[in-house]
Specification:
The protein has 3 helices and 7 strands, in the order αβββββββαα. The chain is α+β, with helices and mostly antiparallel strands and about 200 residues long. It folds into 3 domains: about 5-85, Thrombin, subunit H (Beta Barrel), CATH 2.40.10; about 100-155; about 160-195, no CATH class. The strands form 2 sheets. Strands 1-2-3-4 form a 4-stranded antiparallel sheet, with no helix packed on it. A hairpin with a 5-residue loop joins β5 and β6. The model has no long low-confidence stretch (mean pLDDT about 75).
């Protein structure tokens, strides 16, 4: 629609308050109330002010600031001389570096892990030794059980005396008598085990 006659005709219609054939762009000034219209908001196009009643009039010359911050400079004929859009605010995103542990801290943690590994290995070795000893003790106990069964089935040549059958002497002799008795019992046990 760059036809100059059509443009003039639209301007006349606007001045007379008539609706032009073209679609006009609208904008609101920074006061939030005043509306302005133009065929296009580009240099060379005429701007009109629209009243609350819908009537239009040529916009006064000077700089007019729109709601979005755009500044429109008009000459004496209400034509756009220049349009200055607001600079977009630069958004700076500051990314904080993640708290990375220092090299010394990492080395320290690795050495701690190595110490724990060594301790666990030592525990496994101790556990293996304990298991071996328990196995040996179990075998030895089973041997004693077999030996006890054999002894219980064979008749004794002489009955063993018990410690409680003798009267307990008093004083120092009492201890000596018990020692002698234990020696006799041990000697009898040895003779029984050697016969088998």
């Amino acid at each position: 629609m760059n036809n100059p006659f059509q443009k003039k005709l639209n301007q006349i219609r606007i001045l007379l308050g008539m609706v032009p054939d073209v679609q006009l762009e609208e904008a609101v000034l920074e006061d939030g109330v005043t509306k302005i219209t133009a065929e296009k908001f580009e240099p060379g196009y005429e701007v009109s002010v629209v009243s609350e009643a819908g009537e239009t009039a040529p916009a006064p010359p000077g700089t007019h600031k729109l709601e979005d911050g755009t500044e429109v400079l008009l000459d004496e004929n209400s034509k756009i001389v220049s349009i200055t859009k607001p600079e977009e605010e630069k958004v700076e995103i500051e990314i904080e570096a993640a708290d990375e542990p220092a090299v010394d801290e990492v080395k320290e943690k690795v050495s701690d892990i190595d110490k724990v590994k060594e301790e666990v290995a030592a525990l496994y070795q101790a556990l293996a030794l304990i298991t071996e000893e328990l196995t040996a003790v179990k075998e030895e106990l089973s041997g004693f059980k077999v030996q006890k069964e054999k002894m219980s089935k064979t008749p004794a040549a002489k009955k063993l005396s018990t410690l409680n059958t003798e009267s307990a002497p008093s004083g120092e002799n009492h201890l000596e008598l018990k020692l002698e008795h234990l020696k006799k019992v041990r000697a009898e046990y040895k003779t029984i085990t050697t016969k088998k």
